[in-house]
Every structure is written in structure tokens, then in C-alpha cells.
Amino acid sequence: MRATEVRPSGIERTFGENELIVSKTDPRGVITYANDVFLRISALSEDQALGSPHNIIRHPDMPRAVFKLLWDTLEQRKEIFAYVLNLASDGAHYWVYAHVTPSFDRSGRLLGYHSNRRRPSQPAVAAIREVYARLLDEERRQSRTPDAVAAGMAALERMLAERGRTYDELVWDVTDGGAR
Amino acid sequence: MKARPETVDAAALDEAVRLVTEVCERACNGDLEARVPVISGSERAARIRIAINGLLDHVDAFVRESGAASAAAAEGRFHRRFLTQGLDGAYRAAAEQITHSNQVMSRTAAQFADAARARQALADELESAVLTVSEQVATAATEMGRSANGLADFARVAVADAERGLGTVSSLRTSSDEIRHAVDLINQVAAQTRLLALNATIEAARAGSAGRGFGVVANEVKNLANETSASSEEIMSQVNTVQQSAADAIGVLEAVTNRIREMSVLVEGIAQAVDGGHQIEDVGLSQLAEVLRAEVSRFVSTIRAS
Ligand SMILES: Cc1cc2nc3c(=O)[nH]c(=O)nc-3n(C[C@H](O)[C@H](O)[C@H](O)COP(=O)(O)O)c2cc1C
């Protein structure tokens, strides 16, 4: 898909401290709304973004386990926070601190998903890079995708057990600068 | 586009007004999924769209954050703060207020947890203290019950012994009465013998020298009678002493018996307090200790569960 088409240029892009990158998807993860900040930072036109699956901005250095956890959590109708490295269509990359939540209608039926992304702090990015490097290392030893996802999840669980934290707590430790 | 800019702009603006109105109405009714779709043909319409969508994005973000942060606080996940980043002005002020409230809740929750821990510790202490006490009470009760029963048995035996003693002393009194009777009889015989001896002496004197031998005999008989009554006097005085002693002994034995009977009543009271009475509601000390233990462990498990 796109991630294979766009080659990372190694150029880092950032966005404003008070800006929110917003997108909405349908229940399958197809983009139904993207705000102006999203389009600007991802170097996408509205036409390109709307109707595309959200992996349109997937970066090859993102561990699969993180997205597995994201979808597992959303399926439980729960919110999730995740640090995500994204790839703009021009090859630039940018880190976000994403808050992804399900959207329901009045009767509680799932309408789709929503993501607000904020600019992460430098120390948070440094801390999460280390975590993701370990997951990626485990995933890349596997040739089949399902094996890679399983290996990444296992590595994540080991890491959390080592630190005696839940995933949620780890993410907030990183956010609060208390990463160990 | 350049040919008739005003007309194109006007139509696009009309469309924009219609779409914006519709989205605002949906948003007003709490549908924060609504966003103004792409409006082409007008720079101004595009700007309105971005402004309205930006407003909705911020309201949406605030609503999602406040809901999720409060829910997390209610579940005790205090690490999940309200993310104020990306929110400004009134949004941020309200967000900071919510964060502050959550911190207060977190502190209260921590204090609650401390209090609960302290209560658990107290419950543990209470339980072990009551367990020890009730065990000791139960042991003491068994011991006391055994002693009281032993005492009661002892008292019964003592009363029986004293009663037997009383019988013995009473029969002593009867026999001394009989002795006194016999001595009276002896005295009478002695008095008559003395009279007889006197008469014999007078008759012997009248017989002159022929009665001299008889006079000696009569004199001996008189002496014998005198000695007999002297001995009877002595026996009588000894019998009187014995009778006095017997009367004293009876008084003492009766007093002892009465004391032991009183003691028996007290001991019976102790035994009932320990073992329980004959009525169902008369619960004994050991049962009370068991009831106390059961009540306290029920109380303690209620405290632990709360
Ligand atoms: C609301 C929402 C927002 C998402 N945002 C991103 C994102 O910013 N970057 C990303 O790579 N994946 C995002 N995803 C996850 C993608 O749907 C997808 O799972 C991920 O890119 C992995 O793609 P892959 O399965 O092709 O490897 C998002 C999903 C949802 C539901």
C-alpha cells in the first residue's frame, strides 16, 4: 500500500504545541474526516485522505503489536493512548501522541473511531523509541505477518511484566516523563 | 473562475450557509460526529468550513477528554490525566479544573485506602485478641467448672461427715445419761448400805464383846459404802464434763455444717455460671466465650469485605 510506495526521507516534521491533528474513521478504519492540520502535516489533499484506509500514513518503523493493541482495545469499546510514528506522503515523518476513541450514537451503536493527536515531548519520543526498537527487533525475526504480530505482543508483555506496569501505565509514565 | 467571481462565490456561500447551519444544528443536539463537508468554489466558504470544523474538533476533543478522564478517575485510574495540550482558553481552564478535582479525588482515594488498610489491621488485631481472650476464657471456664464440681462434691462429703460426727457426739450424750442413771442407782445402794452398816454397828455394840468381830465387819462395810459414793461423785463430775464437751462439739459441728451448706450454694452458683443452667437461655461462660468469638469473627469479616 502507500507505506511501500512512499520512501522515508529521514526528514522530521513537527506541528504546533497547541494544534490537534484530528481524524475520524468508519468502523473499518477508513478515513471519513481529516482536519486541516492532518492534511498539512501528512502532505495529503483532502481527496487523497478521505476514503483511504488509515494505514495511508503508516510508517514502516512502527511495530505491528502497537496497532494490534490499538484495534483490540477499540473493539472492547475502550479508549487508547499510543505514541505513533507517521509517514507523510512526501517521505517526512512525524511523531504524535494519539488518543483514539470509539464514537457511539445515542443508542450506543458504534459509528466509527476518532483520533486526536498531540505533539509529543522530546523525552517521551526518546523513551518510546527504545520500547518500539525492541518490539521491532522481535517482529523482524519473523517472516510471516501473524508470527511477527505475536512476537511483538509477546515482547511487549514481557517488557510490561519486567516493569510491573500495564500498557496504559507505561504510556502515561512516558508522557509524564517518568519512564524507567 | 475569473470571469464571474461574484456569482460563483455567492452560490458557494449559499451552499456553505446551508451546510454550516445543518452541521451546527446537529452539533447543538449533541452530535459531535457532524463536520462540514468539502465546499468547492469559494475561498471564503472554505475558510468558514475550516473554522466551524476546528471549533467542532475542539469541542469534540474536550468532551472526549472530560468524559474519559472522569471515568478513569471514577475507576481509580488516576494516572490517566486530562490532556490539556491542544486545548486553549476556557477549554484549558475547565480541563485544569477537572485535573485538579481528579487529583483531590486521588488523594481522597489514597486516604481511603490507608484508612481501609488501617481498619483491616485493626480487624486482624481485634480478631487475634478476641480469639486469645475467648480461648483463655473457655479454658478458665472449663477449669473453674471442674473445680466448682470438685468443691461441690467435697462439700457434700464434708456435710455427710459432719452429720455423722453429730450422730456420734449425740450417742455419746445418750450414753453419759445412762451412766449418770447407773451412778444414781449405785449412790442409792451405797446410802442404804451405810444405813445398814450403822444399824449393824449399833446391834454389835449392844451384843458386847460377843459382837465385837461383827462390829469390825460393819465398820468395814460402812467404809466401803463411803468409798463407793466418793467414786460415784468423781464419775458424776467426769460425766458432766463429757456432756459439756459433747454439747460444745454439737454446736461447733452444726455451725460447720451450716457454713458448708452455704458454701455449696455458692459453688453451685459458680458451676451454673460456668456450665450454664438448666434453662436454654441460661448460657454458660464457655458458651458465652464461643458466642463472643463467633460474633467478633462475623464483625471482622464484615469489616474486611467492606
Ligand atoms: C481512528 C484511527 C486512527 C488511526 N490513526 C493511525 C495513524 O495515525 N497512523 C497509523 O499508522 N495508523 C493509524 N491507525 C491504524 C490503522 O488503521 C492501521 O491499523 C495501521 O496503520 C496498521 O496498518 P497495517 O495493518 O497495514 O500495518 C488508526 C486507526 C484508527 C481507527
From TrEMBL, chain A:
Q: Which residue numbers delimit the PAS fold domain? A: 25-113
A Gene Ontology biological process in which this protein takes part is: regulation of DNA-templated transcription
Q: Which Pfam families match?
A: PAS
Under which name does UniProt file this protein? PAS domain S-box-containing protein
Lineage, opening ranks:
Bacteria, Bacillati, Actinomycetota, Actinomycetes, Micromonosporales
NCBIfam families (UniProt xref): sensory_box
Q: Which InterPro entries match?
A: PAS, PAS-like_dom_sf, PAS_fold
The domain of life is Bacteria
From TrEMBL, chain B:
PROSITE patterns assigned to the protein according to its UniProt record, in alphabetical order: CHEMOTAXIS_TRANSDUC_2 (PS50111)
Q: Which GO terms describe its cellular component?
A: membrane
According to its UniProt record, which protein family does this protein belong to?
Answer: Belongs to the methyl-accepting chemotaxis (MCP) protein family.
Which superkingdom, per the lineage? Bacteria
Q: Which GO terms describe its biological process?
A: chemotaxis; signal transduction
Q: Does the keyword Transcription apply?
A: no
Q: Which residues form the Methyl-accepting transducer domain?
A: 94-275
Q: What is this protein called?
A: Methyl-accepting chemotaxis protein (MCP) signaling protein
Against PANTHER family, the record matches this protein to:
LYSOZYME-LIKE PROTEIN-RELATED (PTHR32089:SF112), METHYL-ACCEPTING CHEMOTAXIS PROTEIN MCPB (PTHR32089)
The reply on keyword Transmembrane helix is no
Q: Which GO terms describe its molecular function?
A: transmembrane signaling receptor activity
- What keywords tag this UniProt record? Transducer
